Amino acid sequence: MADPVKALLDRHRVLCQRAVDPLEIAAGLEAHGLTDRTAARFRHRDVFSLAEELYARVPRDGDVLVAPSAADATATGAAPGASGVAEGSGVTGAGTSGPSGASRPSRPSGPSGGLGWALTVLLPGVVGGAALVGVASTGGAVRTAVGAAGGVGFAVALAGSLRRGPLRGTGRMRPGTRAWMGLAFCFLVAYAAYGDGVLGALLDGRPAEGPWPLAPAQLLGLACSVAPAAWCAHLFAVRARRSLAHSRGLADFAAGTRPLLVATVALYMGALTALLTLVGPAFGAPVPAAPAPHGATRPFAPLEEGAGTMGQALPAVALGTLLFVARLLTVHGYPRSAATGLLAAGAAEALALGSVLAGRLPGWEPLARPVGTVVGTWGAGAVPALACGAAALALLARATAVLARASAHAPT
Amino acid sequence: MRIGLLTDGGYPYASGESRVWCDRLVRGLAQHEFHLYALGAPTPRAGRGPALPPQVARVRTAPAREPRDSRPYGRRDRRRFTTHFRQLADAVCGERNEGGGGGDFAAGLYGLADLARERGGLRSALRSEDAVRALESACRAPGARRGPHVATLSDHLALAERLEHALRPLSLPWYGEEDGLGAVDLCHAAAGGRTALPGLLAKRFFGVSLLVTEYGVPLRAHYLAAEGTPAVRALLAAFHRLLAAEVYRQAAVITPGTTHIRRWQEKCGADRAKLRTVHPGMDADRFAAVGERVDAVTTGGDTADARTLVWVGRVEPTKDLVTLLHAFAEVRRARPEARLRLIAAPGRGPASAAYLAHCGALAARLFPDEARFFSQDSGGADGAAAVGRAAVTFEPLGDGGGLAEAYAAGCVTVLSSVVEGFPVGLVEAMLCGRATVSTDVGAVVEVIGGTGLVVAPRDPRALADACLALLGDPERRARLGAAARARALELFTVDQNLAAFRSLYLELLSRAPVRRDAETVDAEGGPLPFAHPAEAFLPGLWTGRGSTPAWAEPAVGAYAGGGRG
Q1: Contact A405 B136 (CB under 8 A)
Q2: How does pLDDT run across A207-259, given as a tens digit for each residue?
Q3: Residue of chain A whose Cα is closest to the Cα of B319
Q4: Which residues on chain A are in Cβ contact (under 8 Å) with B456?
Q5: pLDDT reported for residue A94
Q6: Considering only residues 218 to 257 of chain A, which have any Cβ-Cβ distance to chain B shorter than 8 Å?
Q7: pTM (2 decimals)?
Q8: Is the dihedral of CA A357, A363, A367, A372 positive or negative?
Q9: Inter-chain contact B42–A46, Cβ cutoff 8 Å?
Q10: Do B230 and A250 count as a contact with CB atoms less than 8 A apart?
Q11: Which residues of A touch B230 (CB under 8 A)?
Q12: Which among A14, A30, A242 is the top mutation candidate for probing chain B, defined by the most B β-carbons within 10 Å of its own β-carbon?
């Protein structure tokens, strides 16, 4: 006599093999129309006991560890599926923190969405270069207009490149954090542009007159480095996501990700240094901002006289590394640490300027002496280099601890 | 009294499965005051939402999109969180294990709820490394089952994300003493599982009784929709089972809609003494005219209508029109004058359109030149005459009052579905006083209860035999039709549904009234006598809020806090 349960098992083989417990089989059977009276035909009291028998009889592969290739395929195939279910089940109107591309069906892209970002991140460098060329080749009121337009265009291009792609933040920052970070960023960039000149002027004892001298090479180098920053961030995210699928545990993952992070930051530093070395000689000629009363034009970066392009590049490299590590922290969900680092660097630079200013007051000269010593020994570029470098090291230490966690790389 | 209605699926603003009966409940029990707590409903802009009846005093929503990250915890709170989450994870991983799992689900859940209430949201903690580490160690613990044991790191991350979504009600700001669930007398959850989670917490924090109504099985829906690797699915299923069991344990009364759902509830651990079956209610006034009509069909005469089989519904593959068409071919062989009218409501999605085309092709093949298709714009006298001549007709359902007339168009209503929950079409046919032939799926047997014929699904011959039996016996048709209408009027009307809930509310409140200490003291802190008299739990507003007689002056001071209805 044919075993009716066996026939049922054959008909619902996929359901039974996929099931993780008897209740799932019962739910599937009822979805196909089985009732308790039908279960009586199989000599069971109700659908639940029939499901228990089916669960016991089917050879399941749900509990056994299948071959790694199949497991990886299910894992990576399931991750977009899981995020898709989570999106569909509850998160219908996700706001700015929308899917970061992990649920795009067109290609199994990693965490950075499509390839549109690859072109967008080149824009800040292009716009900055065009603006500086315009400023260098025009004069007078046109120069001011070109400079202003260039500045606005650069800001827009930078905002655009930070909105998509691997440099996009998670979008869940609190407004206070976002404001502080924006403020610190603006101050750091302004200091990189004008700060050396201002510091030199203050230490010389002259009151600040006219438009301050501008340091274009550093700014252009930083603007062009947005593209390598995006590529390095993308590389880091993709490699980390891949090792997430392969590692056996949290400690395993952390041990593999820490060297990856350090290597990524080193790669970015190398790229930035190369860019600055290329850009420096092209824009190194000082553009006189205003004829100085003493007749001696103060050069842009005092280091230009002495230490050569490497020394000139050092504050820019430090600032660029600080911004890169801060952005990495923000992208992976730690905006408060990033904001703290940026604020600390900005505060250090402001403190240096403030101490020099305060040193002008009668009786407060000792305040200006440390900064004066530093500037005298290593040049005015040493102040931002020290401030940004220390902050960058601190943020790097924090990132090593924090970005090696698996929860920072969770596919959302 | 104040009833806190907990819905998922967005009543009152979005539409979902529970929207219709929630709306009927709120409008029908106008003497109570309702506070609506809707999970997953977007908050509409002011003045744009649908009009709510005046007995809805407060609506609070929790949108479905992801909330902002909460402030991360300090060290002591992180330790508390890790302890409770580890308890929860141990219970989830070790459930159904032969040696009994470690961990206590309820303790973990309520510990997390306390933490969320004191310290703000759980979201950042649930997505932090602590949670993933706790999950990993729980899965590797010796008491865990085999399935979680092989979970990979991606599985842990996916599971942490799903648990965060499932535990989102814990972080909502709904648990205030004055402006939240602490101000209601009774929580009525529109479904079990995650929807009833605020009710669980209200019971724990304020002692408010919980009433759970289920017209569907959330656990079954979860199983059918689950995706992911086996380990993730196993753990999520264990979590939902434990949550359902906890809800059933804490609920004072559980009302399933049908016996079908009741079985699932008992299987998940509901106590039999708490279960009361309350059938869903339907509007019977629409069908009163047809149901009470005395014409040739009901008195057993032999007219054209008296030879017609009718099927009304939405064309979907689960309705199994193929079996019906084959059965009708057999019927027509025995009785050449029989006719079949398929009156279809507009289908949802491309699958139903494809199925309709498939059935049309089958009908054209089985009944060459005798099948007719009518679209919306072919009507009028010519249409009716054309209907009269054809053997099988596919007609669209007219809007408005067409439903009752659709059932009135034939003498026997047929239902041949292979999958059915609560058969709404069948109840409508019963209210129209028609004899029915249906397949044994879902809650059909319970609904019919002997006033119609029931056959096995996917069996054209049995279906044909039943139809022929009824077509040939007019008196039996009339008897069954009258019995069906009486049964439907007794069991499936809105009135009986509302009466059942009204009495349940009173019963629950009489068993476990909520005593708020803040209402028993007056402004100076002295005791306020008669703050909770027995009449406080009567339905209706017995004092307060403008209900002073015309000859009295409005009271000030002492009884300002005592007015409750």
Answers
A1: no
A2: 655 555 566 777 888 888 888 999 999 999 999 999 988 888 889 899 999 99
A3: A33
A4: 38
A5: 34
A6: 244-245, 247-250, 253
A7: 0.81
A8: positive
A9: no
A10: no
A11: 18, 20, 62-63
A12: A30
For residue B75, give every residue at least 6 positions away whose Cβ sits within 8 Å of its Cβ, in sequence order, or none.
none
Calculate how close chain A gets to B400, using CA atoms only, in Å. Answer: 31
Integer CA distances (angstroms), B187 to A313, B170, B280, in order:
67, 16, 19
Distance of alpha carbon A341 from alpha carbon A344, whole angstroms: 5
C-alpha distances (whole Å) from A55 to each of A50, A52, B263 are 9, 5, 19
Pairwise pLDDT comparison (A102 vs A363), residue with the higher score:
A363
Q: What pLDDT was estimated at residue B40? A: 77
Query: Taking CB atoms and an 8 Å limit, are A21 and B96 in contact across chains?
Result: yes
Q: Can you tell me the distance from the alpha carbon of B472 to that of A329, in angstroms, rounded to the nearest whole number? A: 80
**Identity of the residue in A24, A65, A172 whose CB atom sits nearest the CB atom of B68:** A172
Task: Give the mutation candidate from A20, A42, A398 for the B interface (greatest B CB count, under 10 A).
Answer: A20
Does the distance separating the beta carbons of A86 and B232 come in below 8 Å? no
Q: Is the pLDDT of residue A366 over 50?
A: yes
Q: Which residues of B touch A257 (CB under 8 A)?
A: none
Are B5 and B34 in contact by the 8 Å Cβ rule? The answer is yes
- Chain B interface includes A377 (CB < 8 A): no
pLDDT at A247: 85
Asked if A62 is an interface residue toward chain B (Cβ–Cβ < 8 A), one would say yes
Q: How far is CA B297 from CA B293, B301, B305, B481, in A?
A: 9, 6, 7, 10
| Buried-exposed string B503-512: b where 16+ CB fall within 10 A, e elsewhere | ebbeebbeee
Confidence of residue A303 (pLDDT cuts 50, 70, 90): very low
**Which positions of chain B have pLDDT values less than 70?**
10-17, 42-49, 64, 66-70, 96-103, 294-305, 375-389, 398-401, 513-522, 530-550, 554-565
Sheet bearing B308-314, strands edge to edge: B371-373, B392-396, B339-345, B308-314, B412-415, B435-439, B453-455
Helix (H, G, I), strand (E, B) or coil at B8: strand
DSSP for B161-180, written as a single string:
HHHHHHTGGGGSS---TTTS
Of A76, A91, A250, the CB nearest to B65: A91
C-alpha distances out from residue B563 to B162, B243, B505, B532, Å: 44, 37, 19, 10
A42 to chain B, any CB pair closer than 8 A? The answer is no
| B66–A172 C-beta distance less than 8 A | yes
Query: Is A37 an 8 Å CB contact of chain B?
Result: yes
Strand, coil or helix: what is A133? helix
By the CB < 8 Å criterion, does A85 face chain B?
yes
CA closest to A177 among chain B residues: B71
The span from the CA of B250 to the CA of A286, in Å, is: 78
User: Hey, is the C-beta of A70 within 8 angstroms of any chain B C-beta?
Assistant: no
| Contact between B219 and B198 (Cβ < 8 Å) | no
CB B110 within 8 A of CB B247: no
User: φ and ψ at B2, to 5 degrees?
Assistant: -95, 125
Average pLDDT over residues A361-385: 83
Question: Above 90 in pLDDT, residue A106?
Answer: no
B451/A35 Cα distance (integer angstroms) = 20
Q: Which amino acid is residue B187, in one-letter code?
A: C
User: What is d(CA B517, CA B36) in angstroms, rounded to the nearest whole number?
Assistant: 24
Taking Cα atoms as reference points, which of B155, B106, B148 lies closest to residue B235?
Answer: B148
Could you tell me which of A349, A411, A397 has the C-alpha nearest to residue A108?
A411
Which ranges constitute the DSSP H helices of A44-139? 47-57, 68-89, 116-120, 123-137
Report the residue from B146, B219, B267 with minimal CB separation from A63: B146
Q: CB of A167 within 8 A of CB of A159?
A: no
pLDDT at A77 over 50: no
